[in-house]
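Anyone up for a design puzzle?
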């Protein structure tokens, strides 16, 4: 039986790669106007003011506590009202959808700025490993040795995989090329972009795919509300792009012979930290189904910086339902997550203890040296 490794990435992986902690994102948003001195400055200032007004006037958050406020407490009431098609305070459900899209864009900008300042080699190490392992499919199409499942939105790993593949593809014949595969139905945001293609299409041509399944969406995804197509853009250097410009579904425009209008204005696709995650999106359902398939095929599952949070019960249910009993499990965390460093009730609150409990009776190996050190050991 062929062996397969599935890497599961959590927030700790992104933090190791330069992204801010979730608890730091609101503070990063509040600092955004200083980071945009050029043509987008006024737009960013207006968005930040809308965000601050929502916190103070609608959620009654004191200004001095705003930087420490929880994102869950911002998005949970918004998402619940939208799901129930109900108003929340002085906002209608439709107004809340518009507010949420602006807040999503602020988070995208905050992530981009932090990663730009704090990038390191973590993503380069994993991208190279994934691409080289995936290339095995050129010799045997049935050998599917590796994939990644992530709950993160950032695109640092996506870009590193794409950059590595572009270098490799220039050395290869056209039918031996690799492609980043999000494992769902995608179109390129730039209609002429040759690097965004379906993994199945490239496999059919004799190439190979590097699978990256993003369960909570991605900061480089936009979706058409009319036809549900998912638009993707990959970057070498990302400056903001579509966040500031309206983009429309060119398939709907062409198929229905219509001018640009709000019925096919592309929207962000990001499941935010909330206790009421809405996973009814057709593309997200496909992603969760494919993640289940990947985990069911895995002989080895490696969690990189994933805290196994008790609040993320949908994801824990996925793991319980799909991971085989004979699969070996590894978890890569940091020393602060080690339950052996604590006594009393404190040890039961650590991520390490959650793994020991959740996977008790399994072949589990714990690492507390951090993601970068683990990836260096892969060679």
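Challenge accepted. My sequence:
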């Amino acid at each position: 039986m062929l062996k397969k490794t599935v890497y599961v990435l959590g927030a700790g992986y992104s933090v190791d790669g330069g992204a801010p902690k979730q608890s730091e994102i609101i503070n990063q948003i509040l600092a955004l106007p200083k980071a945009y001195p050029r043509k987008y400055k006024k737009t960013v200032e207006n968005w930040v003011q809308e965000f601050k007004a929502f916190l103070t006037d609608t959620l009654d958050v004191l200004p001095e506590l705003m930087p420490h406020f929880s994102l869950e407490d911002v998005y949970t009431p918004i998402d619940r009202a939208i799901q129930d098609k109900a108003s929340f305070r002085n906002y209608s459900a439709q107004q809340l959808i518009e507010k949420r899209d602006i807040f999503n864009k602020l988070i995208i900008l905050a992530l981009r700025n932090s990663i730009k300042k704090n990038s390191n080699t973590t993503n380069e190490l994993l991208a190279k490993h994934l691409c080289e392992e995936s290339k095995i499919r050129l010799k045997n199409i049935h050998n599917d040795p590796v994939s990644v499942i992530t709950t993160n939105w950032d695109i640092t790993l996506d870009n590193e995989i794409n950059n590595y593949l572009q270098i490799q593809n220039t050395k290869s014949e056209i039918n031996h090329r690799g492609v980043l595969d999000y494992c769902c139905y995608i179109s390129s945001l730039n209609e002429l972009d040759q690097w965004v293609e379906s993994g199945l299409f490239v496999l059919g041509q004799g190439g190979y795919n590097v699978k990256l399944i993003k369960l909570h969406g991605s900061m480089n995804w936009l979706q058409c509300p009319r036809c549900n197509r998912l638009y993707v853009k990959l970057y070498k250097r990302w400056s903001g792009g579509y966040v500031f410009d309206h983009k429309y579904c060119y398939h709907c425009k062409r198929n229905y012979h219509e001018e640009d209008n709000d019925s096919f204005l592309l929207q962000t696709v990001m499941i935010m930290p909330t206790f009421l995650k809405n996973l009814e999106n057709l593309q997200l359902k496909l992603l969760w189904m494919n993640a289940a398939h990947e985990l069911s095929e895995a002989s080895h599952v490696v969690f990189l910086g994933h805290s196994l949070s008790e609040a993320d019960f949908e994801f824990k249910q996925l793991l319980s339902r799909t991971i085989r009993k004979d699969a070996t499990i590894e978890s890569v965390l940091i020393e602060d997550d080690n339950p052996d460093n604590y006594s009393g009730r404190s040890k039961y609150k650590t991520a390490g203890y959650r793994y020991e409990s959740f996977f008790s009776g399994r072949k589990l190996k714990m690492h507390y040296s951090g993601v970068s050190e683990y990836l260096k050991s892969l060679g």
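A detail worth pointing out: The chain is about 40% helix and 15% strand.
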